[in-house]
Amino acid sequence: MSKFEFSIPILIDNIKASQSAGVLIQIITYFRILLTRIKENKEIEAKYSGTGKFIPFNLETIVLDIKTLYLFAKIYIDYFIRYINQIFLSNYNLKSRSFKDHVKSLKTTPYTDSWFNLYKEFIFKYERKIKLRIKYVRDKMITHRGLNLNEHWGFNDQNKTIYIYFDKSIDPININIGLKNEIINLGKKYNIEIFHDRKAISDFVYLDLILSNLENLPSQIEKEDEEKIVKYRDKLGIIVNEENLFQLVYDFSEEISQILKKKYPKISTRHVSRF
């Protein structure tokens, strides 16, 4: 499936169909409207790039929609967890005010059946990704951004890809050597060693790549190392785009649907796709 179909899978229990399912579909629809608008505006940007023709506010509109997408991604994750908890996990007495609240509840729950352990492992696998790749970006880079946060954009008209650079460094080409070595060493601890071609990418891009690999590790990392990642992000910044965000949201939704289907085989998986 092409990621740009923007179709997100959710589970529907026909017996317990409720207003909450309709709200979830509505949130996904808003999410898909933003993705579609971003794609269309990137096509326009690629078409006129290099022609000398100026399209007022086109890049700014793309960036605005990507930032808004991060807000709705967090809304979706939190609501999806509440929906799952209400419809499928009511017997486990879990909290689900938010994804963070749900994770805390799972860490203290006494249930030990094999399926529930599988579900817990799944949520814990995504805990770091959602915290650092969605919530952190929304909170620190968009909603409560600092005064020392620089921002610029990069658009590749060949592959129609755009990145937002939230940069806290004074010089992105030559990052503080102490910070650079700390990030490199943390990457090596988890077998992340990336050759740095300084002619191709800056220190900022190189170090962001190492941290991104750490944030996306499938296995658990030590708590103090997760805290280090946040500290390094606070000093460095982060690079984001809508394609990676959508893939994370899609993968989370698809995997949780597969796990729940193992326990409730009669429920149906629906891909929310209205246009």
Please describe what this structure looks like:
It is built from eight helices and five strands, in the order βααααββαααβαβ. The protein is mostly helical. Strand 2 (150-156) and strand 3 form a beta hairpin. Helix 2 (58-88) runs parallel beside helix 8 (242-263), helix 3 runs antiparallel to helix 4 (114-143) and helix 6 (203-215) packs antiparallel against helix 7 (223-236). The longest helix has 31 residues, at 58-88. The two termini are 16 Å apart.
Number of helices: 8
How would you characterize the largest beta sheet? 3 strands, antiparallel
Helix percent reads 55-70%
Q: Strand-residue fraction?
A: 5-15%
Question: In terms of structural class, how would the helical and strand content be classed?
Answer: mainly alpha
Task: Describe this structure in a few short sentences.
The chain contains eight helices and five strands.
Task: Considering the chains and any ligands shown, give keywords for the structure.
275 residues; mainly alpha; two-stranded antiparallel sheet; globular
Task: Present the secondary structure layout.
Blueprint: E1 8-12, H1 19-48, H2 58-88, H3 99-108, H4 114-143, E2 150-156, E3 161-167, H5 177-189, H6 203-215, H7 223-236, E4 237-240, H8 242-263, E5 268-272
Antiparallel strand pairs: 1-5, 2-3, 3-4
